[in-house]
Amino acid sequence: QVQLGESGGGLVQAGGSLRLSCAVSRRTVSTYAMGWFRQAPGNEREFVAAINWRNGNIYYTDSVKGRFTISRDNAKNTVYLQMNSLKPEDTAVYYCAASPTEITSSRVAGYQFRSWGQGTQVTVSS
């Protein structure tokens, strides 16, 4: 089974930056895409960004376009989320997730992902 471990969360002031990492252990040929989701207190989990391992196609939710960048390092089996110009509304627990199929649309949902990390807290102060 794929195991995921996030790191890089923390406390930052509005306008600042953080980079999240997600190390994928036991990655198999059945893992085709990676995604980042977030969940703020009292809110439902929401999609943030996704990337396919093979072709590098990338998808973002509208609220992070131009501020967040997802990338992958195939050799290290690691996915990153560079977050710039952070806003207080970005405060949430961020989760990485692995999908057994490639992502082909920006309409990404959690059910497309089978394995999840434990989450890392991102807090943006105003």
Short characterization:
The chain has strands at residues 3-7, 10-13, 18-25, 33-39, 46-52, 58-60, 68-73, 78-83, 92-99, 115-116, 120-125. It has 126 residues and is mainly beta. 36% of the residues are buried.
Report on the structure:
- This protein has 126 residues and is mostly beta strands.
- The strands form two sheets. Strands 2, 4, 5, 6, 9, 10 and 11 form a seven-stranded mixed beta sheet that branches. The chain has a four-stranded antiparallel beta sheet with strand order 1-3-8-7, with no helix packed on it.
- It is globular, with a radius of gyration of 13 Å.
- The model has no long low-confidence stretch (mean pLDDT 93).
Topology:
Layout: E1 3-7, E2 10-13, E3 18-25, E4 33-39, E5 46-52, E6 58-60, E7 68-73, E8 78-83, E9 92-99, E10 115-116, E11 120-125
Parallel strand pairs: 2-11
Antiparallel strand pairs: 1-3, 3-8, 4-5, 4-9, 5-6, 7-8, 9-10, 9-11
Average pLDDT: 93
Question: What's the helix count?
Answer: 0
Instruction: Tell me the radius of gyration.
Output: 13 Å
Q: How are helices and strands ordered from N to C?
A: EEEEEEEEEEE
Low-pLDDT runs: none
What structural keywords apply?
mainly beta; four-stranded antiparallel beta sheet; 0% helix; 49% strand
